[in-house]
């Protein structure tokens, strides 16, 4: 069986790329198709696959300025020739599902999120964009939304990375989906013998992550906060930060692992579709203080593995930190690690394999029904399989 994995862009190693690594483990001979690719920024596990890029790769600097190429991405995806592939797995957050699957192929889409900048976060992204983007995006967005919805019909089966995303797939695409949580390498994290007196924020420094809330809150409280990550908001965050805030930028994995294990708690102030870092913190034996929306509602158990605050405001975060410090003795590393285990790669692989096997069986039965065997002048009676997937979670 020939397998193609389609990912929007391979220019860094974040949550979406961790899913690609897990799919590479499942299908070691699969080919990978991506819009743009920076070999130096992805793992060896991904690099050893045969990787096909779109015509966007030939544009100078495309691996850094790919977001400005959004209007060309539908054409780039549809230019991929997937003839001869039996199974196509697309990884959607940026556009990926819009490929044209060949006749007879099965297309399973693992959806991290419908494109945020076209749908639920459209006004937020537009308000934080540069002048050119603020002017151009309203003209392009209707066409891109129409293409996005139409291409959802090229997918045989949607898999959502959380119930939060499952709801949005239903809202925007009117398609059911099955929830399979993304793989978090929980075995890579262990608790430290002791902790230190600092809190931690880790992630891309972009507006929707709301790292600004943490920086402002901990500056006001004069409590130590370590910020790990890089992004467009880095300089703006440094300008509002007080002396208790330390920025480490992009750090090697061993440093991230050490900081996760030694912090008092992870601060997670943004709304994420899933959010792997809170699970990594729990696997490190550390609790999470998170904004109570999106994926955090599925990963953080209030009072058991962390605390949730209900407003994205500095005051609400400060109150949550104060409440946490009054009860932090209740959080036990063993409980946190056990909770994180439900998001392991083993769970992801089992869930995805079950869905893919089911879809391949459905497609095989459909082919048999379209070419019925004839026995004694009669069509053989073939089993009828349920064709409509239900929205559910695979454990």
Automatic annotation (TrEMBL):
Superkingdom of the source species: Bacteria
UniProt domain Glycosyltransferase subfamily 4-like N-terminal: residue ranges: 15-187
GO molecular function: glycosyltransferase activity
Coiled coil (UniProt feature): none
Keyword Transferase: yes
Keywords, ordered alphabetically: Transferase
UniProt xrefs under Pfam families: Glyco_transf_4, Glycos_transf_1
Keyword Disulfide bond: no
Domain Glycosyl transferase family: 191-328
Protein name according to UniProt: Glycosyltransferase involved in cell wall bisynthesis
Source species of the chain: Rhizobium multihospitium
């Amino acid at each position: 069986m020939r397998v193609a994995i389609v990912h929007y862009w391979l220019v860094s190693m974040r949550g979406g790329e961790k899913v690609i690594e897990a799919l590479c483990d499942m299908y070691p001979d699969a080919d990978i198709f991506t819009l743009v690719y920076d070999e130096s920024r992805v793992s060896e596990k991904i690099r050893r696959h045969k990787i096909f890029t779109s015509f966007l790769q030939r544009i100078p600097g495309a691996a850094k300025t790919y977001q400005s190429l959004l209007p060309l991405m539908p054409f780039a995806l549809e230019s991929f020739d997937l003839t001869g592939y039996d199974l196509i797995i697309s990884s959607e957050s940026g556009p990926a599902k819009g490929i044209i699957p060949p006749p007879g192929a099965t297309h399973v889409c693992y959806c991290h999120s419908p494109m945020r900048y076209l749908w639920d976060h459209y006004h937020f992204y537009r308000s934080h964009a540069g002048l050119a983007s603020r002017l151009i995006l309203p003209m392009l967005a209707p066409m891109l939304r129409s293409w996005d919805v139409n291409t959802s019909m090229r997918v045989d089966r949607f898999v959502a990375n959380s119930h939060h995303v499952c709801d949005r797939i239903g809202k925007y695409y009117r398609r059911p989906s099955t929830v399979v949580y993304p793989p978090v390498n929980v075995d890579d994290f262990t608790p430290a013998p002791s902790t230190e007196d600092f809190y931690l924020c880790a992630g891309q420094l972009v507006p929707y992550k709301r790292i600004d809330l943490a920086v402002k809150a901990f500056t006001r409280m004069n409590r130590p906060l370590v910020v790990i990550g890089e992004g467009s908001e880095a300089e703006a965050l440094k300008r509002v930060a007080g002396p208790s805030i330390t920025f480490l930028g992009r750090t090697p994995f061993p440093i991230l692992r050490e900081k996760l294990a030694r912090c008092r708690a992870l601060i997670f102030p943004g709304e994420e579709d899933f959010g792997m870092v809170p699970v990594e913190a729990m696997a490190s034996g550390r609790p999470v203080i998170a904004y109570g929306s999106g994926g955090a509602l599925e990963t953080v158990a209030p009072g058991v593995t962390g605390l949730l605050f209900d407003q994205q405001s500095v005051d609400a975060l400060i109150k949550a930190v104060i409440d946490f410090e009054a009860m932090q003795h209740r959080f036990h590393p063993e409980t946190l690690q056990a909770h994180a285990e439900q998001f392991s790669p083993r769970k992801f692989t089992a869930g995805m394999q079950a869905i893919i096997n089911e879809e391949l069986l459905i497609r095989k039965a459909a082919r048999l029904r379209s070419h019925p065997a004839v026995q004694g002048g009669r069509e053989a009676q073939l089993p009828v399989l349920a064709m409509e997937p239900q929205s559910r979670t695979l454990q």
